[in-house]
Amino acid sequence: MRRLTVLISMLVVCQGLATPLSLSGTLGPDGAEEDGNPEVLSSLTLLHEDASADCQVGDGASYRGTVSVTASGKTCQRWDSQEPHEHSRTLANYPSAGLEQNYCRNPDSWTEVWCYTTDPDTRWERCDVRDCADWLARDQAWAVGSSGAAYSFGGLTFDAGKVLDGDTSTYWNPYGLERYYNNWYIVLDLRVPYSLFRVGIANYGDDIHDIKAFTLQRSESGDPYSWENVTSADDIVAGTDEWQERGGFAATARHWRLLISQTHKGWQPWLLELGLYGFRVLADAPPGYAVFRNNCIRHRNQLGTERDSSVQRCAVSCDLLLACRSFDFNFHHLTCSLSTDTRDSAAQAYENCPARFQQQTDYYEKQDHPQTKDVPAPTYYNPLDHESTFSTPNGHTLDEGVGVSALQLESRRSQYANLGNFAGTCFGSTLNCPRGFTLAFWFKRPAGDNHPQYYINSGGHDFTRTRGFTLTKTVADLDNDLYNVAVNGRLCRHEAKVYLLADQWTHVAITWLEERGLEIFVDGRVQLVAVLGSEIPPLENDPYTDVFLGSANTQPGEHTGEAVFDELKFWDWVLSDGQIQLAMIPGSDLRPQSMRFATVCRLEVRNVPDP
To answer: How does DSSP assign 295-333, residue by residue?
Structure first.
């Protein structure tokens, strides 16, 4: 198997900048005119306070680290001192150059950072600060276009993505073009802008298909592209698969093209690997957010995932949700996951962000804090993470939850949980709910739950015998993801069909007031709702006031529901939308869009648009 002689899949973790770099060299600090423009800076723009804190990009004009010794070990002279060397590189003359204390800087567009020294015999020296740029961690999905048809053989397709897979036993073979075509190309979409300084390739090494000349191009826009040349090489060696690099350029773009203008024998190129050396261009964090580069929480408490998005759009979505505290942004796939978690509430997840996610993810966290003091304490709260808070006659399992742990019930074992008897309370019977109620809980159900079952119940199996609420899977909905929510009041029964996805945590919040009907929050997404307000016979006393999970309280152990439950909360009045959202912190998947149905004993069917 062919092997490259250099590592080309290293992660670029340094902070980047937003403008093309200029690497044009000048004379040393004392070789230039000292009375020149005091604001001469490179084209680098610092975009985040920790950018270039421990490395320099380009000529180092943006470097704001704390290295204060030269490459030979001499201590740097303070910039505000004129001893032992007088100079004009002062904060007054270069106010944007970061001339603090005696830290190495490049205020005047020299080739790298430097400082005056405290040695009277050595006026200045360069500083040894590492380069932020590195060989980019690559993604086969970057290859979005290429010339010719991908050659296939033995079940393997030799497409353009093979040059980015790190596997030197595979290669790109653009098949079907004539000899001396001399216009072979690969189009790359890096998903976000990168500043590049070097490019490397590995030929196949057979003399016949080896590249001799290529041009690296960039485009300011996506398809349709507007290509401009960045750098060219016409001296690539044939007969070897050794790594060959070319540099001496600096450019920034998201869209790039490798244009191969010549192979050594005129046949289509066989290219093993392509590498790009540079760093990711970073933008400011959105207002009100702090950004933590190359890190993640891999949110457990997702409020949803957005695809084909941007940091700015993700921040807008998070701002619309009072419960949203943060989001991970995957800059390779342009997706973000919104969450109620923070680095404090999910400290272990933050500290253990897997390396493969660090390579392509930034973590953003809101800097303001919600006013949870405005949310009244629930009348009843059960974290469902300890056996002392429920009884399970047929056993149960404690699984990982959105909080500490969660209650898992298995239908095949006829498992259900009794939360207790709540006679005389609104939680136990809606006969005691003159102000209505708010019920909220976390819920995760498996795919394929294709039999009638109860999930949460205080309203029994026969609504004429008891009063309360229930969430069920009915016979009519065994082949879909609709679930039935029903509340039996004094005079009316209200029902709604809600859509719940399988195999993921979903937050369900229900408010009810007999004169108004149901108000349902289900991750902010309800596709179809049918509300039925029907008159029911009066009931003076409610004999069934236990609250069950996984079964009806009038028929314990029958039609048991398989699901995981967590963070159950109940208020004996109707919360406002904002209070419901804030009450879900830190355990929430809530989206702030409610479905209101002010029905009193009448039938309505409403289509609710997908938000």
So the answer is: -----SSEEEEESS--HHHHHHHHHT-TT--EEEEETTT
Dist CA 252 CA 220 (whole Å): 9
pTM confidence score: 0.55
Domains of the chain: 17-131 (2.40.20.10), 135-280 (2.60.120.260), 289-366 (3.50.4.10), 380-607 (2.60.120.200)
- CA 389, CA 417: separation in Å to the nearest integer? 10
Q: How far apart are CA 345 and CA 94, in angstroms?
A: 43
Tens of pLDDT along 555-611? 898 888 899 999 999 999 988 777 777 766 644 333 333 333 333 344 343 343 333
Which amino acid, residue 460? Answer: G
Which of 426, 295, 411, 272 shows the shortest CA–CA distance to 353?
A: 295
Note the pLDDT tens digit of each residue in 55-81: 887 788 888 889 999 999 999 999 999
| Cβ atoms within 10 Å of 9's Cβ, excluding its own | 15
Whole-angstrom Cα distance, residue 513 to residue 571? 12
417-421 and 437-444 strand pairing? unpaired
**What are the CA-CA distances from residue 55 to residues 10, 13, 63, 67, 168 (Å)?**
16, 10, 7, 10, 31
Nearest CA-CA partner of 404 in 475, 453, 348? 348
- DSSP assignment letter at 172: B
Q: Among 47-61, 264-278, 482-496, 534-548, which is the least confidently predicted range?
A: 47-61
Give, as one character, the DSSP assignment of residue 257: E
Task: Please name which of 116, 49, 33, 40 lies closest in space to residue 76, comparing C-alpha atoms.
Answer: 116
CA distance 289 to 527: 32
Cis, bond preceding 84 (omega within 30 deg of 0): yes
What is the Cα–Cα distance from 463 to 532, expressed in whole angstroms? Answer: 14
Helix (H) / strand (E) element for 418: namely strand 417-421
Closest CA to 594 of 538, 535, 492, 511: 511
